[in-house]
Amino acid sequence: MGTIVCQVCNETIEHFEGEKVATLYSSCSSCGSEKKNHGQR
Ligand SMILES: [Zn+2]
Fold first, then answer.
1. Residue 41 C-alpha to ligand 1 middle, in angstroms?
2. Which Pfam families match (predicted)?
3. What is the reported pLDDT for 32?
4. Ligand 1: centre distance to CA 29 (Å)
5. Pairing verdict, β 12-16 and 2-6
6. Ligand 1: distance of its center to the CA of 9 in Å?
7. Which of 4-41 are b and which e, b meaning 16 or more Cβ less than 10 Å from the residue's Cβ?
8. What does the alpha-carbon distance between residue 15 and residue 20 come to, in Å, rounded to a whole number?
9. What separation in Å is there between the alpha carbon of 35 and the centre of ligand 1?
10. CA of 27 to the centre of ligand 1 (A)
11. From the CA of 20, how far away is ligand 1's center (Å)?
């Protein structure tokens, strides 16, 4: 099983099925795409 973690606030966003244990980093809806789109929201 894998876990998707928000790289901004470190919260667990989602778990997904997988053969290996893995951690992926993304952004949750709260943090959104703040990093990609500077400013705005
Ligand atoms: Zn977040």
1. 13
2. SR1P
3. 81
4. 7
5. antiparallel
6. 4
7. bbbeeeeeebeeeeeeeeeeeeebbeebeeeeeeeeee
8. 12
9. 11
10. 5
11. 24
Find the 37 Cα to ligand 1 centroid distance in Å: 15
Residue 18 to residue 37: CA distance in whole angstroms: 31
Query: How confident is the model over 1-41, as pLDDT tens digits?
Result: 999 999 999 999 999 999 999 999 999 988 986 555 555 54
The residues spanned by each domain of the chain are 1-41
**What is the pTM (predicted TM-score) of this model?**
0.68
At 11, the amino acid letter reads E
